[in-house]
Write a structure and sequence with these properties.
Length: about 220
């Protein structure tokens, strides 16, 4: 099923990479760990095409490997337009597990930010709820979100930044499956910071005291 263009492009390097995997013998287990299907429908009315990205984890007697294939299905049939074999040191579940072992100071700081920011936002929401401020519920909504987004891949340590983003309670984590790495994210609690800074000025103006009511005394005869 290999596309001739892929075979020509891979050459000896691709064959060497493949032999480095299969030289370990027959795999003990083959697991599908990722699948993504995309459909293409050209505007010109030509035939549609489907691309399937398939990722497998291969377990050998004394080695592990990850194999990724790009399978295209169209009018001419089905063929593999991309293939990659990558030896790995252990199973993906072990490599991508959550642990503090051998992690840098940046990992620890990022994790504590993802824990402390939600606690800070929740505490500020409680303060806002108990305060006599104008437009209390609008402030609570504003406080509940963190703006911008800083991301950290827990396995690789790779970071990313999204300037236009909001996060409920200012932090989150995402994992596509048990084979995938965990991605932690946190945002800046701008709403909570602004509220605490201007809280005293948000109190409603004191109402004038009520006028004293006239109490009639019984007239004496």
């Amino acid at each position: 099923m290999l596309d001739p263009a892929v075979t020509a492009q891979a050459g000896a390097k691709g064959l060497s990479q493949l032999h480095g995997v299969v030289d370990h013998g027959d795999p003990i287990a083959v697991e599908l760990v990722g699948a993504n299907v995309v459909f293409f429908k050209p505007w010109g009315g030509s035939a549609s095409k489907r691309q399937s990205n398939l990722t497998y984890q291969l377990q050998f007697q004394n080695a592990w490997a990850v194999a990724a294939f790009l399978v295209e299905t169209g009018p001419t049939g089905r063929h593999i337009s991309g293939a990659n074999f990558q030896p790995v040191g252990d199973s993906l579940q072990v490599l991508n597990r959550f642990t503090f072992k051998n992690k840098s100071a940046a990992h620890h700081l990022f994790f504590f930010a993802c824990v402390l920011i939600p606690l800070f936002i929740i505490a500020t929401i409680v303060i806002c709820f108990r305060s006599r401020v104008r437009r209390r519920w609008l402030w609570i909504i504003f406080i509940a979100f963190g703006v911008m987004q800083f991301q950290l891949n827990w396995t690789t340590g790779q970071t990313a930044f999204r300037p236009i983003s909001v996060l409920l309670l200012g932090a989150s984590f995402f994992r596509a499956s048990s084979y995938a790495p965990i991605v932690f994210s946190f945002g800046i609690p701008v709403g909570a910071i602004i509220f605490l800074a201007v809280r005293r000025r948000l109190r409603p103006k004191d109402e004038p005291p009520p006028l004293p009511t006239a109490t009639g005394s019984p007239s004496s005869i």
